[in-house]
Amino acid sequence: MTAPVREVGLVPPVLVLRRSVTLLMAVAAGLAVANVYYAQPLLDAIGRDLALGERVLGLVMAMTQVGYGLGLLLVAPVGDLVDRRRLILAQVLLTVIALGAAYFATTAVVFLVAMTCVGMLAVVAQVIVAHGASLAAPGEQGRVVGTITTGIVVGILLARTAAGTLSDLFGWRAVYVASSAVGVMVAALLFAVLPAQRAANAQQSYVRLISTLFTLFAQLPILRIRAMLAFFIFFTITVLLTPLVLTLSAPPIELSHTQVGLFGLAGAAGALGATSAGRLADRGLGQRVTGIALVLMLLSWLPIALLPYSLWGLIVGVVIIDYGLQAAHVANQSLIYRVRPEAQTRLAACYMMFYAIGCAAGSMFSTMTYALFGWSGVCFLGASSSAAGLAFWAATKGRGGV
Predict the structure, then answer these.
(1) Which residue has the higher pLDDT, 43 or 53?
(2) Residue 5 lies in a domain
(3) Mean pLDDT: which of 197-211, 286-300, 322-336 is highest?
């Protein structure tokens, strides 16, 4: 599945990924991140079952993102300390256990703890991205990162669709037991074909490794700028998606969970955004991609605001915002991974920490805003965060060496 190449970069990649292995990594990363998003189209059912009020439903997604943030801080950097293959396999198997706990949960506290663990372990997706980037041949990083990120995008989209369908057929708990079973199969496939790689910092202590996260963030302007952009774009998308089930399942629309989940497929264009952005970033156009993507995210709120009067407006808006989101996200990652190749997992952890903060904040504020001001308030909040992200990009354009 692999072929020898000359050693380049920080941990000299003695192997280069074939496309089939890259695609498997994309699938594994997509399934890992999907676990974070299964709950989005099911919030109303979970809330009824576990007695969570409308204003606090955002806690389900927020605690998952809190766990994701903790995983980025405490778990993902270990990818620069140990063989990433072993770390990936361990995280996938532990995720199977956490999903089982979510399935058996009978109280809100137990379910929230389980979801926090699921979020913490979902950072395996970032370890996979960093592993793929480090094994990529010269000039191929953007393509590999784009391919794996495409898998993540598709995983997120299918998560909502699959969750809605399974919930309507067998109840919301079936989603988590099904994902647990799939996780076992994915672990077996990864064990069979995933290349190993010597760690770049095998002699460094864990505490020292974690401390370097803050050093990297302080030293690299491009990392700080791209991390803040991650906060804005993921705050924006979470503001849209978290309360979406509440308005689509309520009168006068009253869609089923399956129908709500199908709206996730409207964002399939996001996968195209990820792939094309990676290729353009390889050509040195990452900054231009970012600007266009942020403009698209802002404009997307015009058709989204037509809900509940037009479901087609929502579909168009979701296509645009997902495309812009993934294009900006891949451009961000492609740019920061080039700065310090020996610290790719830690760079990913620093960057994605702001992703998690943005998602957690977006989850909490969006459900509170929806409870107080309805869908119009949600659209105003989302458009405001989109505008703030675009303004930040314009103010920092040309800084950080790009």
Answers:
(1) 43
(2) no
(3) 286-300
For residues 1 and 190, the answer to whether their CB atoms sit within 8 Å is no
Query: Percentage of the chain surpassing pLDDT 70?
Result: 89
Amino acid at residue number 111: F
Phi, psi at 12, each rounded to 5°: -50, 115
Total number of domains in the chain: 1
pLDDT at res. 17: 63
> What are the CB-based long-range contacts (under 8 Å, 24+) for 94-97?
94/121, 95/32, 95/35, 95/121, 95/122, 95/124, 95/183, 96/180, 96/183, 96/184, 96/187
Distance between terminal CA atoms of the chain? 35
Phi, psi of 2, deg, nearest 5: -130, 160
Q: Is residue 131 part of a domain?
A: yes
CA 294 to chain centroid: 17
In DSSP terms, which residues pair with 4 in a beta bridge? 15
Find the domain containing 269 and state its range. 10-396
pLDDT at 273: 61
What are the helix (H) ranges across 12-123?
Answer: 19-37, 43-50, 58-74, 84-104, 108-121
Q: Which of 5-19, 39-53, 270-284 has the lowest mean pLDDT?
A: 5-19
The answer to the question of residue 150 being in a domain is: yes
Which tokens in the block code for residue 23?
């695609």
Whether residue 219 is contained in a domain is answered as yes
Report the pLDDT value the prediction gives residue 224, as an integer from 0 to 100.
Answer: 94
